[in-house]
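The freezer alarm interrupted the setup, so I double-checked each line after restarting. Inputs confirmed:
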Amino acid sequence: MKINSTWDDLKLKQLEDLWKKGLPISKIGEILGVSRNSVAGKAHRMGLPKRTSPISSEKKESLSGKKNNEITNKIIPLKIKLRGVEWSRIKCCWPEGDPKQNDFKFCGKEIFPGRPYCDKHSLLAYTNSRENS
Ligand SMILES: [Zn+2]
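Predicted 3D structure, all chains:
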């Protein structure tokens, strides 16, 4: 057994005290003669409050920022895809399927004169709007 992984009651008490004083984890390790990882692991198991340093919170922010970018990158290609679709104004633009799925498409049948949809879908659309109002 390595000496620096040994914890006794005195060390645990010291760890708790030093932790609550807000000493850096590496400093606590130095005082107690254990590794930084050992201090962090022990503190975690003891349920001591998480340490927040300006560096770690900054890291967190950049991580969540990255996450947001990933989501945006997923959404934008779809929007571009839909905008880039060559679309004739004389075809029904009733959406079919789930916009998030690849099989999403528009109806594409010839429109009912004066309406944006084919006869079947304009009936659907106008029935729905009557029911909602
Ligand atoms: Zn249609």
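Quick read of the result. The chain has five helices and two strands.
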